[in-house]
Amino acid sequence: MKASLFCRAPYMGPAPQGWPVSADAYSPEIATQSMETALEQFRLADAVGFDWLSVAEHHFSPMSMTPNPMLMAGVLTQVAKNARIAVLGATVPILNPVRVAEEFAMLDTMTGGRIVAGMLRGTPNEYVTYNVNPAESRERFEEALKLIRMAWTEPRPFGWQGRFYEYRSISIWPRPVQQPHPPLYMSGSSPESGEFAARNRIGLGFAFTTVPRAAKAASFYREKAAEAGWEPTPDNIIYRLAMHVADTDEQAMADVTSGAPRREGMSLANRAVESAVSDRGYYGRDKVDQRARLHPNQLKERIELGQILLGSPETVLKQIHAIRDALDPGILDLSTVAQDRDAIMKSIDLFGEKVLPQIRDL
Questions:
Q1: Average pLDDT of the chain?
Q2: According to the model, what pLDDT value does residue 295 have?
Q3: Alpha helices, DSSP H only, in the chain?
Q4: Nearest to 283 by CA among 259, 266, 297, 304
C-alpha cells in the first residue's frame, strides 16, 4: 500500500462560508503564508517517504487556493525529489482538453515520468466558474478524456471533430515520458463512472466518502473490469480520507477536538455529511454545519466508517488494516485535519516514520 499527502492549500485566515465567497476579508499576507505552509507540508512528506503528493482544482473559495492545480504541480516538481505528483484532478469539462493534455505531458517531462493524471467532472458550482452547462458534464468529460488520451499516444498530427470539441490539427510537444501515458484516474462515485472507468481501463478514486460506500462501488468496478477482460490491481484504487497521528490516542483526539472551529470539506462534522452525499458523489455543503466543532463521539463514528485515521501510530495501523480488508485500495490519499502547524508537521513525520514502513507490503 502507498500513501499520498493531499493538500488544497486552504486560506488560513478568517473568511466567510459558502460559494462563491466574497473576498472582502482577503489578506495577501495570509494567502502568501498559506501557500508557504502547504509547500512546507509537501516538502516534509516527500522527505519522510510519502509515495505521492496530490493537488486538486477548486474555484472561488478559501477552502482551496489552487484554481489551477497544474501550476501547483509545476511548483512541486521543484519541491518533490522522490514522490509522484498527482493532480487529482483537473476538472476536465470546464477546461480545454488539448491544453490539459499538453500540461500533463509537460509536467511528466519536468519530473522524468512521475506524474499521475486525475480527471474529474467536478461539482455543480464549478461549472458556474466558466459558464459550462452541468447537464453536459458527463458527455463532455468522456469525450475530453478520449481526446486527451489520443493527444498523448498519437505521434502524427490529427484532427478532432466531436460533439463538444473541434480541432483542425493536434500534435502536442512535449510528449509524456511515461508510456503510453501517465497513470489515469477518475472519480468512481456513481455506477456510470465506475462502468466507464472499467471499460476504458482507468483507475478509480474515492474522496471523503465512507469505506462501505467505496467498497460497494469498487466491487462494481472490478466486476465491470472483468467483463471488459482485465483485472484491476490495488493500485487502481485511490481512497482519500482525513488523517492525524500523534504520540498517543489521547493526544491525537485532543489535537483535533480543541482550538478553532474547523472549515468544511473534512468529512468530519456530523451525520449530515453522509446524508448530504448526492448520487453524483459530492457533498451538499450547504446542508452541512461547516463550522461545527468536532466531538469525540462523532470522530469515533468517522473512524468506524473509514473517514479518518486518528490516533497513535499503532492505532492508525489497525485502522488501515480494517480499510485494506474492506476495500483493498493501493493508495491512501491523506488530508491533515489538525489546526496547529506543529501538530500537522508532527503528524506527517510520525506517519512517514512509523506507519508508512509497516504498510508497504499490505
A1: 90
A2: 76
A3: 28-47, 69-76, 97-110, 124-129, 137-153, 191-199, 211-227, 249-257, 271-275, 296-304, 313-327, 341-350, 356-359
A4: 266
Q: What is the sign of the dihedral through the CA atoms of 256, 257, 261 and 266?
A: positive
Q: Are 91 and 57 in contact, with CB atoms under 8 Å apart?
A: yes
**Other C-beta atoms within 10 Å of 109: how many?**
17
What H or E segment, with its residue span, contains residue 285? none
Is pLDDT at 263 greater than 90 in this prediction? no
Contact 146, 119 (CB under 8 A): no
**Rounded Cα gap, residues 166 and 181, in angstroms:** 22
pLDDT at 259 (0 to 100): 61
Pairing between β-strand 331-336 and β-strand 237-245 as defined by DSSP bridges: parallel
Preceding peptide of 174 cis, ω within 30° = yes
What is the distance between the alpha carbons of residues 212 and 258, in angstroms, rounded to a whole number? 29
Whether 2 and 330 have beta carbons less than 8 Å apart is answered as yes
- Each residue's pLDDT tens digit, 39-97: 999 999 999 999 999 999 999 999 999 999 999 999 999 999 999 999 998 999 999 99
Mark 89-101 as b/e (b = at least 16 C-beta within 10 Å): bbbbbbbebbebb
Report how far residue 306's alpha carbon sits from residue 327's, in angstroms, rounded to the nearest whole number: 10
pLDDT at 272 over 60: no
Q: Which of 83, 114, 69, 78 is nearest to 333 (CA)?
A: 83
The CA distances from residue 241 to 207, 214, 313, in Å, are: 7, 11, 16
Q: For residue 34, how far is the Cα from the chain centroid?
A: 19
| pLDDT value at 275 more than 70 | no
